[in-house]
Fold this sequence. Notes:
Layout: H1 9-38, H2 42-70, E1 80-82, E2 92-93, H3 106-136, E3 140-141, H4 145-158, E4 165-169, E5 176-178, E6 182-186, H5 195-211, H6 213-226, H7 232-256, H8 260-270, H9 290-298, H10 310-327, E7 343-353, E8 360-375, E9 378-386, E10 392-398, E11 401-403, H11 407-417
Parallel strand pairs: 1-7, 4-6
Antiparallel strand pairs: 2-7, 3-4, 5-6, 7-8, 8-9, 9-10, 10-11
Helix pairs in contact: 1-2, 1-3, 1-7, 2-7, 2-10, 3-6, 4-5, 5-7, 5-8, 6-7, 8-9
Amino acid sequence: MPALVVSAGWTGWVLAWLGTYVVHGTLLLGGAWLASRLVRSPGVRDALWKTAVAGALATTTLSVVAARRAAAAPELTRRLVVTDTPGQMPLRRRVVPPRPALPPWAPPAVLAVWLAGALAGLARLEQGRRRYWRAAGPRHAAGDAQAADALRRLRSAAGVNRTVYITAAEGLTAPAAVGLAEICLPAGTLAALTPLQREGVLAHELGHLVRRDPLWKVAVEIGSAVLWFQPLLRVAGRQMAECAELLADGFAVRITGRRRPLLESLGILAATFPRRGAAAAGFGDGGSPLLRRAARLMDATRAPAGPLPAAVRAGLAVAVLAATLAFSPGVSPPPAAARRAGLFRVELNRAELNAARTDVASVDPGGSLRVATIRNGVRRELLVVRGADGRPTYDYRENGAPRPFDAEARAWLARMLNGG
């Protein structure tokens, strides 16, 4: 990873993370897009996109943290020189961190633009969510005993132990999986479905809950809003929505053993979809094209779509993330304790320090204490000599201009005498 420092302080941390994410996110999401053009299996494509979405966040964070640790702070040891003859005091040069690659005004400006875009995106997302549920109307417990019995059988067949609630909303246009344990049904439309068709719909939505599709959808939408400069996140959201629908169809076919009722329910529900409607929380009406889903369901020679085995998904994730961390460049945050870097020198000549080594106790005739540092562009110099009354006198300067030797200057001298 190149040692490119964008700014000091927490601003540098944020900009380093964002800059590294641009690189890692583009590589991983772009790679997933290319691979999904070649691979038709919904399970493989779903694993690729999820690995890319989550992996870009993980590798970016790990890279920035690793760069922070690797950029060791220049070790600054106390340089105390005792001489018999005062003279010119050279400054000992230490390693100075690289200067920021951006002008001083650029980091705050970039950060402000990013924050403005992120806040606007989150506001639009929240506005869309509220509009969708206002149109759907209030949700209430569905008083359908047949649907409740069917869901219990489906949960038992799928090995789902947690409770799943069935709710209904008058204005909902498509079934929706909500959160981790709710299936919301359109109250009017499902009355037209037969018991087997309704069972197929419930099995499909249960598949979304088992796969945690609603949470993935929300996470990608929030990521797209906050990281608005990465358009591939929106592509990932659409591709993951399509894969989720096909995999939920496959889940329904496996646990019910029937294709036709689910296929018929797709046709009935499609007739009620508005021309332009909000996507359901469980990808109900905003996912893959219904014709593609129907064609896959009708093909009895093709096995129901299923996810990759957990071990294969884990191996894919480890391989992709390791390769990204090993070979992808990024932006380095400011080195730790960069403020300690610079030039440092202390010269003591026939003078004694106090017991705490924070100040000069006494100076012999012709003796002196000289201290000089250059840090963060500020040069500080101090000359202590014996005064006419035998007590130490202080000549303190900053960038060549005389300054009073006040409490702040005394604290600086104490730090210098004790190692900086």
